[in-house]
Amino acid sequence: MSRTFEARLAKVEQAIAPKQRSHEDWVAILATEPAPTEAQTVAMDAEIEAEAIAEHGSLAAAARAAYLKANRTRDPLDGFLAVDLESRAMAERSAAATTRSLPLH
Questions:
Q1: Which residues 6+ apart lie within 8 Å of 48 measured at CB?
Q2: Is 6 domain-assigned?
Q3: What is the pTM of this model?
Q4: How many domains, the chain?
Q5: I need a labelling partner for 37 at 20 to 30 A (CA). Which of 6, 22, 71, 105 fits?
Q6: SS (H, E, C) the chain
Q7: Does 75 fall in a domain?
Q8: 101 lies in which domain range?
Q9: What is the pLDDT of residues 71-92, one digit of tens each?
Q10: Through-space distance between the first and last CA atoms of the chain, rounded to whole angstroms
């Protein structure tokens, strides 16, 4: 095989190979990134919740849709997102219940 053919074949094989990274790859990548500040974390959380509510009407509905997708795709990331949205919905319900149960003085 000629070198140009081998180089082209290698490029094609790389393009065909799955683009998903392993857990170890992500850990190594994230280790090089600076940790987000508290303000960045709050902003990201607000953005995630706003997008979920805009698309599905509520966090609970977004969690249900995410679980359905996770069951369909069997993708671990979809499962993680479903659990995350469900925990956000539970926190929202808990906060609402606490607010309603506070006595008025």
A1: 84, 88
A2: no
A3: 0.63
A4: 1
A5: 22
A6: CCHHHHHHHHHHHHHHCCCCCCHHHHHHHHHHCCCCCHHHHHHHHHHHHHHHHHHHCCHHHHHHHHHHHHHHHCCHHHHHHHHHHHHHHHHHHHHHHHHHHCCCC
A7: yes
A8: 37-105
A9: 999 988 899 999 999 999 999 8
A10: 85
